[in-house]
TrEMBL record:
The keyword Protease applies. It comes from Luteolibacter arcticus. It comes from the Bacteria. Keywords: Hydrolase, Protease, Signal. Residues 1-21 form the signal peptide. This is Serine protease.
Length: 260
């Protein structure tokens, strides 16, 4: 009986092993980074398409950023399983000319970058969902920097779990947004929404773009106040739009943004 119990506990330990169950999350974490300058803070992730590396984020984060550069918070592995933060300056404009490519109709942008990176700091482009929405009610994860918070001094993002909260009533082409039951904060825009694709690999199914608030207009004799209360819901764009934007960027002659 004692032997049977030990065997059962050992089997359960394997099933709930954090290293096993979170392998796809760690893979996504390694390619997700903070992107900021004095006027804009966001989350981004890096996709690899052949020899090209594309930085993916929400378009409004580039548009709100002033000046010609932003800081990309990379990380470098050290000794004894330690990590060091590596801030890299990347060009986002040349004068007034944006170096990013925006989706024609959606809040999504990509930018080709030239950086010295280990292979596991970029995700292959075939890890992006190629059609439609994630399934209604399915569990998803997101990696972001809520309220600009970093997990630690190395600049890792924070992971959260959610479910797909909206059932699609139209095709992705007509309405490419879906809703997740997580509260987005400033700094979350551009963060990947992803699932476990099996064999410890992530699949990107969307990208965080905005928080959904309940808006109340409170009127009194002397003033009117607008109160916005987070509803615990956020908007995300379906992943195929990322691929559309990368195809558009590849057909555009631009200057890759380099880091220093």
């Amino acid at each position: 009986m004692k032997s049977l119990l030990l065997t059962t506990f050992a089997a359960l330990a394997l099933l709930v092993s954090p290293a096993h169950s979170a392998e796809h999350a760690e893979g996504m974490m390694r390619v997700t980074f903070k992107l900021f300058n004095k006027d804009s803070t966001a989350t981004c992730f890096l996709l690899r398409d052949g020899a090209d590396v594309f930085l993916v984020t929400a378009a409004h984060t580039f548009e709100k950023a002033t000046g010609e550069s932003s800081i990309l918070v990379l990380r470098e592995a050290g000794e004894e399983a330690t990590w060091k933060r590596q801030d890299k300056t990347v060009a986002i404009r040349e004068g007034d000319r944006p170096l990013w490519t925006k989706h024609p109709h959606q809040d999504l942008a990509v930018m080709r970058v030239v950086l010295e990176l280990p292979e596991d700091a970029t995700l292959p482009i075939d890890a992006v969902k190629t059609d439609g929405f994630p399934c209604f009610g399915d569990p998803v994860m997101l990696l972001t920097y809520p309220a600009r918070v970093e997990a630690n001094g190395a600049g890792f993002p924070l992971a959260r779990q959610a479910v797909v909260a909206s059932f699609p009533a139209e095709t992705m082409e007509k309405h490419p947004e879906f809703i997740i039951d997580a509260t987005a904060w400033d700094g979350d825009s551009g963060g990947p929404v992803f699932i476990d694709a099996g064999e410890g690999k992530p699949q990107v199914v969307g990208l965080v773009t905005a928080r959904i608030n309940h808006v109340e207009n409170i009127k009194s004799e002397r003033e009117t106040r607008k109160i916005e209360t987070p509803m615990g819901l956020s908007k995300a764009l379906a992943a195929p739009l990322i691929l559309e934007t990368i195809r558009l960027a590849k057909n555009t002659v631009d200057v890759p943004a380099s880091g220093r």
